Amino acid sequence: MLRNLVSIKDMHKDEILLILMQAKKFAQGEQWHAGKQMFVANLFFEASTRTKTSFEVAERKLGLEVIPFEAGSSSVLKGETLHDTVRTLESIGLDAVVIRHEADRYYEQLINKINIPVINAGDGCGQHPTQCLLDLFTIQQEFGRFDGLKVGIVGDIRHSRVARSDAEALRKLGAEVRFSGPPEWFEEEYLSAGEFVPMDKLVEEVDVLMLLRIQHERHDSEAEMTKEQYHQMYGLTEEREKRMKTGSIIMHPAPVNRGVEIASSLVECERSRIFKQMENGVFVRMAVLKQVLEGRLTNELANQKWQYSC
Amino acid sequence: MLRNLVSIKDMHKDEILLILMQAKKFAQGEQWHAGKQMFVANLFFEASTRTKTSFEVAERKLGLEVIPFEAGSSSVLKGETLHDTVRTLESIGLDAVVIRHEADRYYEQLINKINIPVINAGDGCGQHPTQCLLDLFTIQQEFGRFDGLKVGIVGDIRHSRVARSDAEALRKLGAEVRFSGPPEWFEEEYLSAGEFVPMDKLVEEVDVLMLLRIQHERHDSEAEMTKEQYHQMYGLTEEREKRMKTGSIIMHPAPVNRGVEIASSLVECERSRIFKQMENGVFVRMAVLKQVLEGRLTNELANQKWQYSC
Amino acid sequence: MLRNLVSIKDMHKDEILLILMQAKKFAQGEQWHAGKQMFVANLFFEASTRTKTSFEVAERKLGLEVIPFEAGSSSVLKGETLHDTVRTLESIGLDAVVIRHEADRYYEQLINKINIPVINAGDGCGQHPTQCLLDLFTIQQEFGRFDGLKVGIVGDIRHSRVARSDAEALRKLGAEVRFSGPPEWFEEEYLSAGEFVPMDKLVEEVDVLMLLRIQHERHDSEAEMTKEQYHQMYGLTEEREKRMKTGSIIMHPAPVNRGVEIASSLVECERSRIFKQMENGVFVRMAVLKQVLEGRLTNELANQKWQYSC
């Protein structure tokens, strides 16, 4: 039983496949309701449209009450710790929290100290497990399998929450991972997960080309390369797309820097699953929410005992 | 069938009257529900209480799920284009978006490129069609007709979204429009829509006196005139109100600058429909939302085909 | 019939007890719905997690539609008065507003000028009646009575909304109030409400120890004392907690400054009711909302008459 979702590393292959199976059911129109009024909040301490909105829609589709939380006008401004903020939300009656926070592994101050499930929507340069799950779901939807698939991950690997989670999970599930992009944005430790290959070679080999977003906000020394230079050297140009294998697909976590990671004309091309990924994100998040809330409902009697003994 | 609402110019006289008729039904207590869970978002890139709240209440009255969107904490900060933001919301499952944006004609990058309806809640100095419709509705509610009515529009005409929309629509419907206010805030091009008349003459002639808000935030050279001077020269003073025709009414899009456009004591006087306009705004917006969502429901099969072929 | 809740001073002992009784029913699982769609908004012009979220959950539990209101992006920025903002919300169809505002007695510009109930969620250094009610509820829940109870209030009494409300209400209900903390943060006028006692003496005497939050944001001359010094002189240290009476409890409105007002290790100790207070806050706010909305429903016909005569 999934009690929290903080890192893809913690998840068994079977747990991952269970989530994907449930997501598929939701994509096909299955409905699930808790059977009672349940409350969640999305605590986003970093800017986000996609992920926050995706969780919000997933929550509403499950009939949950979504309690607004604005980091910018919260008591965090009065110096309250994240632990005390979440503990407060628990006392007020929330049944789960979704958190994005700039601190790596922020969740360590919460797990086992807070009595409600925590879903990690991104921690610093660490994990982003629901993005990973929606990537996996999109691949599974396309190919029906992971075994033997060749997946190329390209770009700002060192700063990417997505690269780490995806590479690990894909290997767990039997896919073969390769990396490309600027060598100075790669790290040796990734070599255990997959080979580093020049971009022009990679595009011809892979079934799935996962482009990562250049996180301008995390780079100081960007001056070294213009956007146009990046595009020519490591981006998916129109020319490179033509050399991709039949049936191969393009993915990107978005927001896209048009003309940098990918030519603007390719964003909605036939191979692109970029907007499909967003659509799938809702179903995957519904599946995750369902799992942790079912756990919550099961543990509820125990929780109440714990609360009243306090 | 109304697919979007971006400008009053695009609307036929009959389309306008149809919206007003539906708004009247909602004012009388009629209810409408989509028959399924539908999602909308209000994207306000400029400050607003009235319009945003009015849409929100209208949406809730129709049983819609309103997905929060904070421009200030969205991926727009990461440089995402408006098109990509709205395209994202479409992928995530939204059924319509309401947008206020500081750029004139921002909607041109969306219409026919996005597959969900766009309702314009104000673009730069351009259009503000739902404000226009609520003004029309308030006039119709009062007089039961437009033909032969004399409507005076006073104030900051050059910078006013409302003035342009209203003047055009009123003429379409048979009313006679006149303008007043500081001559330097008027533009020749408006003379085709109606005469420019001194304020002291105007107040005695009109059935409807529409005062516009001085948009302090859009004027640099305001120093030329104090607020008190404006009030004496172009405002509705207590003295001028006494000279208005029997049965004539006062309108203002609000927020009111008390003591500038209108004497503070007149804001809630018997002639004033200022707060009535706000009440009516909800019914008019319900009517617009109903129309575009009915269009959406009709087109849904086609849309789904389009999405899956991608 | 409670029409507004702005100050605990306005409330009769019986009115207070009625709210507490209703809160108890909600804590025991009683449900209440208005029987029709009703709209509320929470206008928080000052940062808050606890109070805003608590109201939001209370409102959802009563099935109310909560209309988002962001002070930072509202027309208040365009210079609109609080009166005109709330009058606008009334026109748009809201049935009640909850307001926190930095101005003392901000509500005087609203009461009897606005036709919908106002619930005060904190005004400047003035009142914070729902915090007071939840404190009372927590005490009643613990001891079943107020008569003869000794309650100590410690800390930043001069700047505390809570201290004023609580001291008054507790005396009304028969409890005995004492104060402690830095003498320069105390004011003579409070002596009529209760004695000033050294902290080391106080902890041994009281049944309820109410610690107040040091409002760093309201103190300029804080340099005079370090946090550690405050803790040693006026805080609840581990040593002092050991000398508290059997069965006595610790309360704090939160957010807690750990290691200042109270040792971090005591925040969730057996005596602590800090998180219980938050839990109770929801039930008390449900009770308040129910009362004012019942009043609203009763007055509705009258209100409508008033609106249409305008």
Automatic annotation (TrEMBL), chains A, B, C:
Cross-referenced Pfam families: OTCace, OTCace_N
PROSITE patterns: CARBAMOYLTRANSFERASE (PS00097)
Keyword terms of this UniProt record: Pyrimidine biosynthesis, Transferase
Binding site for L-aspartate: K78, R161, R213
InterPro entries documented for this protein: Asp/Orn_carbamoyltranf_P-bd, Asp/Orn_carbamoylTrfase, Asp/Orn_carbamoylTrfase_sf, Asp_carbamoyltransf, Asp_carbamoyltransf_Asp/Orn-bd
Keyword field contains Transferase: yes
PANTHER family attached to this UniProt entry: ASPARTATE CARBAMOYLTRANSFERASE, ORNITHINE CARBAMOYLTRANSFERASE, MITOCHONDRIAL
Record's protein name: Aspartate carbamoyltransferase
